[in-house]
Amino acid sequence: MKHYRPHIFVVIALAIVLSSGWHGALRNVLTDLRFAWQSRQASGDIVVVAIDAPSIEKIGVWPWPRRLHADLLRRLETADVKDVVFDVDFSTPSDAASDQAFVEALQAAGGSVVLPAFKQPATDAGDATAVHINRPVNQFGDHSWTAVVNVAIERDGLVRRYPFGDTFDGEFHPSMGAVLAGQYAAKNPPFLIDFSIRTASIPVVSYVDVLRGDETALNRLKGKKVIIGGTALELGDRFSVPNGGVVSGPILQTLAAESILQNRTLRWTSDVMALAGVCIIALIMMFSWRRLSAGVRVIVLVGMAAATEAIAILVHTKLPLVFDTSLLLTAIAVYMAAIALDEIDFRDLLGRIAENRFQRIAMSLGDGLVCTDSNHRITVWNPGAVAIFGHQPAEMIGRPLDSICAASVKGAPGSISTFEVARARSQQPGGVVMEFDGLRSNGEVFPVEACFSGWQGTDGFQYGAILRDISVRKREAERIRYLAEYDSLTGLANRDTLHDSLSVMIFNAEKQADQVALLVVGLDGFQHINDMLGHACGDSVLRAVSERLKAECAGAGIVARLSGDEFAIAVPGAAMTETVAQLSERIALTFATPLLVGTRLHRLKASIGAAVYPGDGCTAEELLSNSHLAFCRAKATKRGGHVVFESAIRHELESRLTLEAELARAAERNEFELFYQPQVRLADGGLTGAEALIRWRHPVRGLVSPAEFMPVINTSSISERIAGWVLETACRQARIWERAGHGVRVSINLSPSQLQSGDLAASVAEMLDVTGLTPSLLELELTEDILLLDEQRVLDTFLRIQKLGVRVVFDDFGTGYASLSYLKKFPLNGLKIDRSFVLELCADSDDAAIVGSTLGLSKKLGLSVIAEGIENRATVDLLVSMGCQEGQGYFFGRPMPAQAFEDRFLTVCGPTALVLEEGEAA
């Protein structure tokens, strides 16, 4: 059986090659190489008229009018060509006149023109295998011949075979290459194109040269067969061929025609010849396997391979045959592998491989590798160990393993027993990992990690250890621990460390019935330093602040950095000599002295929030939360001061959160509605407009005052949603009144969120478009806090709004800080005098002076004025005497629902005097 092993090996290998399809791939590769080694020239009887890039550039974008093909046919007739073949799609009609010109040219050609037909997958059928046959349209087909242009693309994406024709609906149609060659028969099978014919030898002339009658081009066509088709890259008619080539459709058809003309319709030899060759090789090897040496057998096999391939090349050159040598060469290669395997001593080889592998691994390890004999004396000392300890192999081979341990060398008790335990446990699966202090050659002591293992060798039980210097790891671990517990910028404890320390303080205070104070300290105006001087300067300021806080605490507690410019100080009661308020005041006074950072003095203030265990919280989380609430209160009300936590602060926050939640639900349940308060002409009491005011109809509490919920809405996430609803609802109501014949101007109070988060001008334009409201009937009221957001952006927004025809009015005029400058900068149509100046107008001369000045200024600036807060007739008369034209207030009517407003002011005859009469009656 051993004698036949190589031959069985060959049979199995050949079976695998045949069943896997590698045989066909190898056969194609060998054939393609023979094409590359040989070179044949084209006969020159067929010329390609190329629709190339210069033709497209001069004639225009493809497809071209068919009248150009008609002109080309006439040019070809004058050149006395034999046959004309078009590799261009004529299966669909185009311009009628152009098609008729082409038909006339075909008739004139007298039936010497061939047009293409081809198959393609059908797109309108449910069957995926269905095909559609594209033929020239009937008016062309009646005056021409038809040839098939389809070629088969093999699994590797290349074209190798070419058919003599195909059958369409039971009728045989020759292929285009066969028509050009003038040789075709229905029974001829497909053949291999001879790709040793060089494409560069095929004559090619440009379409545009023939079309314009270039004499040189026409002379090259005389007496030739012509194929017309696209060769330009942008036309996409490209095919991949052997040896990395890519050719156009016309060139491929010409190669096929040349193969037929030159009697190079190649076919592979039969598999019987290949199997016979394999049998001959097998017989030779069976005869010589034990008679000849391995070297001689290899020479014989190499000779057979060379002879086989030489015969194949000779046959390929002289005959239209491709000698398939793939199986023969495969058998030869497998026999050579069998000879190599037969000559190898595997056991010795594996042993040498294992030994060499161990040596390579041992010598290339970055870690130290040390092996010992049964007496624990070192036998292997690799370069990694040299790098770690500084001792050369000559110094360490034969020395005890304990000599690398610092404790052993210095005689520390227990060191020997540590190694003994490691050795005893080293026989366990995976060995044992331990750490010890190693000793370098320069006397330096450093941490070492060792993995001990043991095994039974030929010289007794042996030990090995992989050693690693973990000095860097220890330092990195310490660094990571530091970063996890301390702030990298200031060196103070971070939030997590503060939390842990605070928990310990609370635990100790609980046992001793003591207190713990926690202060949250935040810098006021620190962001301006970052913005103006940069973050590097800001970081220096934070480091200086941390040093000042640490110095102020003097080790009595822990100072931590919470985030950004927020710090915390935790002090146990035992270390406190003052009340928490006094401590807060002392910390705040610390910042009275400017901070010197570099060459700059920085004057900062600190807001402080304080909480005390156990009254303000029983856990670290509660104490941190409550002290931060107090800090936020200090930021909002006492910048530069301190606030000690009170339960009312949390109750207020919880109430606000509850109110926010209720407001969100109210928006979802449509509990909001708009009330309208009349605005009138003071001179005659005529209605001029109405201010839309939001009201909340709570299902339990009834109508809720806007003063209670509007401040919360303006600073909550639903602000933009509510503001959009107000704009839409007011516009729709104004449009209803407008369509009823009442031109009531409706005023809407804007929210800062409408300018912060979106394009207000676009929203207003969209709402006017959706509702159809006349723009002049919409008035937008803005306050100073809106103008402070982004002056240029706000200015651009309101300029766009005014272009829509919408009025813009300044509300609460006189109560801000820069109202007069806004009258100059911003595009305003009017202003509203705040009710605080109108309520006591008759009794307070100062209010009268302010109102009178405002009216005079507005008149000169061309602004309309509405006085708010009018509650009696005397105020009306005084305002009229001062020149005020419009007003609103309870004297004319309280805010009311839309229907009540309509019933009271819009459905009564004579509305001009109605408002004043109603006010006097009230």
Describe this structure in words.
The protein is built from 37 helices and 37 strands. By secondary structure, it is of the alpha/beta class. The protein is 48% helix and 21% strand. It has an 8-stranded mixed β-barrel with strand order 28-29-31-32-33-34-35-36, surrounded by 5 helices. Strands 1, 2, 3, 4, 5, 10 and 11 form a 7-stranded mixed β-sheet that branches.
Structure summary:
This protein is α/β, with parallel strands linked by helices and 922 residues long.
Largest sheet: 8 strands, mixed, barrel
N- to C-terminal separation?
A: 127 Å
The residue-averaged pLDDT reads 83
Strand % is 15-25%
What multimeric state do the chains show?
single chain
Number of strands: 37
Helix/strand class: alpha/beta
Q: Show unreliable segments.
A: 909-913
Total helical segments: 37
Which strand order spans the largest sheet, edge to edge or round the barrel? 28-29-31-32-33-34-35-36
Residues in helices, as a percent range? 40-55%
Shape: flat
Whole-number radius of gyration?
Answer: 50 Å
State the main characteristics.
single chain; 922 residues; alpha/beta; eight-stranded mixed β-barrel; seven-stranded mixed β-sheet; 37 helices
Summarize the helices and strands and which ones pair or pack:
Layout: H1 5-20, H2 22-37, E1 46-51, H3 53-59, H4 66-78, E2 84-87, H5 96-109, E3 113-121, E4 131-134, H6 138-141, E5 145-148, E6 161-162, E7 165-168, E8 171-174, H7 176-181, E9 191-192, E10 204-206, H8 207-211, H9 215-221, E11 225-230, E12 238-241, E13 245-248, H10 249-261, E14 267-268, H11 271-288, H12 294-318, E15 321-322, H13 326-343, H14 346-364, E16 368-372, E17 378-381, H15 383-389, H16 393-396, H17 406-409, H18 415-425, E18 432-439, E19 445-457, E20 460-469, H19 471-485, H20 495-512, E21 516-524, H21 526-533, H22 535-553, E22 558-563, E23 566-572, H23 580-590, E24 595-597, E25 600-602, E26 605-613, H24 620-637, E27 642-644, H25 647-668, E28 672-681, E29 687-698, E30 702-704, H26 706-714, H27 719-739, E31 745-749, H28 752-756, H29 760-771, E32 778-782, H30 784-787, H31 791-803, E33 807-813, H32 819-825, E34 830-833, H33 835-838, H34 845-861, E35 864-867, H35 873-881, E36 886-887, E37 896-897, H36 898-906, H37 911-921
Parallel strand pairs: 1-10, 1-11, 2-3, 2-11, 3-5, 14-15, 26-27, 29-31, 31-32, 32-33, 33-34, 34-35, 35-36
Antiparallel strand pairs: 3-4, 6-9, 7-8, 12-13, 16-17, 16-20, 18-19, 19-20, 21-23, 21-26, 22-23, 24-25, 28-29, 28-36, 28-37, 29-30
